[in-house]
Amino acid sequence: IKNSLHCERLAVDLNLFKADVYLTAKEDYQAAGDYWKTLDPDCCWGGDFASPDSDHFSLTWQGVK
Fold first, then answer.
1. Which strand ranges, in their side-by-side order, compose the sheet holding 56-59?
2. pLDDT over 90 (residue 49)
3. Which residues contact 5 (CB under 8 A, 6 or more apart)?
4. Residue 2 above 80 pLDDT?
5. Residue 55 phi/psi, 5° resolution?
6. How would you write 1-61 as a 3-class SS string?
7. pLDDT at 14 over 80
8. What is the mean pLDDT of residues 46-65?
9. Segment (H or E) for 62
10. Contact 55, 30 (CB under 8 A)
11. pLDDT band at residue 62 using 50, 70 and 90 as cut-offs
12. Sign of the Cα pseudo-torsion (37, 10, 65, 32, in order)
């Protein structure tokens, strides 16, 4: 997506694996998301979005999440 936070280098999607199995459930990312949000008030976790995107970790920039 043009002008996304990913393109602006303000977001990353982390893909977790356990025993060579790709983890996709929100619960799999919950601890990382909770930790990420403690680092700074501008840290956002996609698991909290209205349409959860649990592997998404980003920073708010100029009011955009």
1. 11-13, 56-59, 43-45
2. yes
3. 11, 58, 59, 61, 64, 65
4. no
5. -90, 5
6. CCCCCCCCCCEEECCEEECCEEECCHHHHHHHHHHHHHHCCCEEEHHHCCCCCCCEEEECE
7. yes
8. 91
9. none
10. no
11. confident
12. negative
- Give dist(CA 57, CA 13) in Å, integer: 6
Residue given tokens 């956002």 in the structure block:
44
* pTM for the predicted model, two decimal places: 0.87
| Whether residue 40 has pLDDT greater than 80 | yes
Sign of the CA dihedral running 47, 50, 25, 46: negative
* Residue 64, both tokens: 């955009």
* Spatial contact of 52 and 46, defined as CB atoms under 8 Å apart: yes
